[in-house]
Amino acid sequence: MPPIPIRFPASALIIVDVQNDFCPGGALEVSKGDMVVQPLNRLASLFASKGGRVVATQDWHPAGHVSFASSHEGKKPGELTHTARVKEQILWPDHCVQGSQGARFHQDLDTGPVNLIIRKGFRGGLDSYSAFFENDLQTSTGLDGFLKSLSIDALVLGGLAADYCVLYSALDAAALGYKTFVASDAVRAVDIPEGSAERAMKLLGEAGVIIAMSKEFE
Question: Which of these is catalytic: 23, 94, 127, 165?
Fold first, then answer.
């Protein structure tokens, strides 16, 4: 297929949560999550060489975070609960605790081209999937302002997990008016509950997000 035309420097790559706890052996392992590293490194090099921007997000939870099943008596990972800030919260194993080895970027991810790191989920009582907003859908991470200040109008996203943080980041990007792409070989899904990976792809298509292989941007 011919390359997908994206304009530089008015484009940015968003690398979502490529952290140890989401990779094989991590506390919230995504199957083959480390396979996203190589295509993302290639894309980051491309964007840097063309004058585009590269942003990386990082889950950065305090101990006892509201999204941890261990913070709710009698609850297990995968179950749902209600919190003061959101109506429905899926519960996860303790993961990406601030300053921990699990919260670090995967050792093979090339962070040299990264211009900005957005840390999210650092409020104890509020989870965050999207790179743009916390899960109350109101609290901004500041990413939109950063991109708009640079006149960026197109985004390519990849990372972990396809059915949560990548999904909601891409949906918010499209809703905010960015031409939005997801690099299909640079994402992997956790698929909890079962079927969420398939649902994510459907939602992205309905939102006008374009799904393409990373090589199509090169």
Answer: 165
| Farthest CA pair distance, the chain | 54
- Given 17, 59, 127, 144, the catalytic residue: 17
CA separation (Å) from 19 to 91, 93, 120, 176?
Answer: 19, 15, 13, 26
d(CA 199, CA 162): 10
Beta-strand pair 53-59/80-81 = unpaired
The answer to whether the beta carbons of residues 188 and 33 sit under 8 Å apart is: yes
Structure letter (DSSP) for residue 97: B
How far apart CA 147 and CA 142 sit, in angstroms, is 9
Quick: pLDDT tens for 48-92.
999 999 999 999 999 999 999 999 999 999 898 877 667 688 999
165 is a catalytic site residue: yes
Residue at token pair 């990849």? 158
Is-catalytic flag, 76?
no
Q: Are 125 and 163 in contact (CB under 8 A)?
A: no
User: What pTM was estimated for this model as a whole?
Assistant: 0.96
Active-site entry in 96, 120, 144, 163: 120
Is residue 17 annotated as part of the catalytic site, yes or no? yes
